[in-house]
Amino acid sequence: MSILIVDDFEEQREMLARTLRAAGYRSLLFAESAAEALKRLGIGAGTRPSDRIDVVLMDLLMPDMDGLEACRRIRSEERLEHLPVIVVTAKTDASDLTAAYTAGATDYIRKPVIPAELVARVSMAMSMKEEYDNREERERELDAKTKELGRTVHELKTLRGTLCLCAKCKRVRTTDGLWQRLEDYLEEKLNAKITSGVCNRCGG
Fold first, then answer.
1. Cβ contacts of residue 100 below 8 Å, gap of 6+?
2. Dihedral angle at the C-alpha atoms of 113, 119, 123, 126, nearest 10 degrees?
3. Where do the domains of the chain lie?
4. pLDDT tens by residue, 77-87
5. What's the CATH fold of domain 3-138?
């Protein structure tokens, strides 16, 4: 998982990178400005994401565009709605933090940065992002299965009244002209396990 470090001071970027590398994070990306960070994230006309980014460490005080405006632009993108953005700032008054959260920040780290705090907050953000990604993947799989079931139901409705069932072995003739066990046919079409039993009438 990749971390994008955004800061206009090279010394600050390197300090954050050293701490994160010591904690085992190897995939680190850098941006010297908010504008460069937005470009890396694929925000702006004619731009595409250059890398997969899972967490952003965003300095607040930068020239041209500050971290608050960058946060607002990130949150304006629906696909980045759940991207963790941790602001790194020396301004920790209640009003400053409120402004950061209002702009879309997920968390904050005080300057001067304490290495243990940096690692802990990044680790928490990574866990949140991974949990969201897993949930999103499950939702996509469920949506795909729902659509597949809908197609199967539609197919069965279309075939209703036209199924050819062998009077002796109860096999079904498929659209390919093959004969298939009724249980196998239903399992394939309904994506459900067919079990057998004996009803009260047949069982006496």
1. 60, 67, 68, 71, 87, 89, 108
2. 60
3. 3-138, 144-195
4. 999 989 999 99
5. Rossmann fold (3.40.50)
